[in-house]
């Protein structure tokens, strides 16, 4: 669906995307995970044929965005980072206007709008104005609108940023449904749980480069331990990192806590207690993509 080789985007002197290689296969949910400024949106905008590449090769649906942008766009759905719905129109009209734009007849538009309202779980709001809708509803409507042309490939730039957990889960559920219908998804996100839930495969981006690639489970196995012991100490107390280092394969000291990467977290915690250390709280959890990112970059995703 997408083949990029040494794909590069420069803004003047600044290189936002630094020669990345990416391949997205039909039917998969593929993710770009990285913090703000990593180059995810710049990459997405090149794939969406709205921003030309500066260098490298790019094929989307086997076509060249420089020469065949309109043909590609006709088969794509694009969900931008910011909702750009028409607040003057109702929910249904937002879908209908887009349908007309894609050249559907009035009858086709009516039918498609009905299907999409159902998909977005907004049938009961069809004739409501857009402005007072919740953030989650607006997001679902934006996604529904991007599906008007029945795209093979759907690009979602930070689909759930700013949504509460319930709205995020509802939205993920809709995306799973699309995937089950065979739509290829490409998602950018700085939420590691979103990447872990949604993506079959992903690349971790930082500073315009790809720093790792694989399925969430592969990345965790490759770059982290099975379990992590998180210890918090009272404010102002120096974290006794040197007294804990031998309990784990690796430790990370963050401003408010220390992370001990150990195969068996409970056993490590027993040792902590046996050494007379009394953390304010302790938590044994499995490793996540956040741990992978920390390992690869020395920073947390939300820095
Ligand atoms: N039009 C532009 N002109 C100049 N610099 C830009 C432009 N667009 C993006 N950049 C810069 O390129 C870098 C990558 O931006 P990009 O939006 O691709 O990152 P991102 O990973 O999507 O982060 P975010 O989540 O903030 O969108 C940033 O440093 C940004 O300031």
Automatic annotation (TrEMBL):
Keywords: Antibiotic resistance, ATP-binding, Cell membrane, Membrane, Nucleotide-binding, Translocase, Transport. GO terms for biological process: response to antibiotic. It is found in: Cell membrane. It comes from the Bacteria. The keyword ATP-binding applies. Gene3D superfamilies: P-loop containing nucleotide triphosphate hydrolases (3.40.50.300). Residues 2-232 form the ABC transporter domain. GO terms for molecular function: ATP binding; ATP hydrolysis activity. It holds the Pfam family ABC_tran. It is a peripheral membrane protein. GO terms for cellular component: plasma membrane. Signal peptide: none annotated. Belongs to the ABC transporter superfamily. This is ABC transporter ATP-binding protein. It comes from Amycolatopsis alkalitolerans.
